[in-house]
Amino acid sequence: MIRLYRFLKPFSVALLVSVVLIFGQTISQLYLPTLMADIVDNGIARKNVGYIVSTGEVMLLITIGGMVASVAATFLSSRAASGFGRDVRARLFARVETFSLHEFDRFGTATLITRTTNDVTQVQMVTLVILRMMVAAPIMAIGGIVMAYRQDRPLTLVLAVAIPVLVVAIVLTARAAIPLFGLMQSKLDRLNLVMREGLTGIRVIRAFNRVTYQTHRFDEANADVADNAIRANRIVAFLMPVLMLVMNLTSVAILWFGAVRINSGGMQVGSLIAFTQYAMQIMFSFLMVSMLFVMVPRAAASARRINEVLDTEPEILDPDSPTEPVRESSRYTVEFRDATFSYPGAEQPALSHISFSAGPGEVTAIIGGTGAGKSTLVKLIARFYDVDSGAVLVDGVDVRDMLQQSLRSRISYVPQQTVLFSGTIGDNLRFGDQSAEDDDLTRAAEVAQAAQFIQESPGGLDSSVAQGGNNFSGGQKQRLSIARAIVRKPEIYIFDDSFSALDFKTDARVRAGLKPVTTASTVLIVAQRVATVMDADRIVVLDEGQVAGIGTHRDLMLTCGVYREIVASQLSAEEVA
What we know:
By secondary structure, the protein is α/β, with parallel strands linked by helices. It has helices spanning 12-44, 49-97, 101-107, 109-151, 156-200, 202-207, 211-263, 269-310, 374-381, 404-408, 425-429, 438-447, 451-456, 474-488, 504-517, 530-533, 553-559, 561-570, 573-576; strands at residues 334-341, 351-358, 363-368, 389-394, 397-398, 411-414, 423-424, 464-465, 492-496, 522-527, 538-543, 546-551. The two termini are 70 Å apart.
């Protein structure tokens, strides 16, 4: 957890002032019992009203000063802790944004959300407690012992017995509770995962009548978190009665032996009152330490999880000396040169020795059976993954030698699973080009065959889009995604099975509308349907991660058996003819 405190550096001045104020407040609290003893022994016992008033005024000033210092210290430490949490969350989000898809798969969305929210909150809360107590508790404990010793040396033997008992109770409790608090965050990950799956998959759950099953899964995960929390808090709850018992027994012992000392003339009443207050301050400081022992283990586990994300170096990095394609125009050629790629841990490559090129002004289609590697192939162009061997080139330059931002700024990618963001239709269409005018959005919507339902929506382009675009059908979401890609006006279009939710008539209209707006661009279309790719300038047929054939529809019907099987499975003999 200490490693995370480098994020407190911008708040160094506030922390320093806060420490000084807490130090002053603690010293003032330690001085008050001595003044009280003076009032009792020198004022009340001698009936010296003037001394009582003057000393009382000093106590009032010290109390007001301590209160002001406490309020100011709390404000500064709270501000520093909140800023610390903000900066850690920002750094976490920024690091996650640099992850490749492999890092996302390794961590998982649920745990990344938990680490960015709950884990950071845990560390932030403990940081605030530490800022308040790391100065106050030691000074109060040590200062209280010194001041109590000054009041009466023999009576400090009572503290010599009580303090070790407190230390043993705190240590035993911490040893039992720390492992349970360490498990808390991982169990919260599981709970968040089950809840997220239940919410995002609610349609499938209801369609298969598995609501009871999903509820049972959630109840199990929820009960696991609750049982772990109950066990941990039960142990911690045992600590408080022990501390109170020791404190009360210590108070009784001090009063008992103090009375004996007063009776023998070895101690004054005021000193006994002050000694009792110092003993309570010492006990209170150990109580604060026990709170830290309860909170720190869970925060330490959270800090380890946060550092695990921050320490993860993304596999895909920008080159030290980036290269940009040298060209006379903005026409980009995409080339795969003997490219091979394997997912981590896979026994066989997902793609093996892929070689072909796609030029500007052409439509290159990629077709194949399920699991053939079509979507994986186009993800290599945008460098979501890096090839194991070979190369993917854009206008003759290896994509690994280009800046990721520069590469992706030239690509419009329509993913297989449509993604829309909450906001308005206009916000989503402007996602690729914030400067686009409404006329640009309308033209793109017309090409994507989305203009009609946008106009019919209340508000038109200002119509709201629910989270995930759940207030639109699958076909409408795909058409909005296609329109978003068109608005960007890129050099490279990648459509990853982006017409699957469209009927054949709309599919044909969209592809016909795309031709005039993509004449200067390189277009790659991943598709399952033969009807979508028949008119392509080039068709790449994939089979089990390898190229089974390249050519036009007519050429492949003569030379590629895999392609003929795909065509025969989708089209009748008359349609093929």
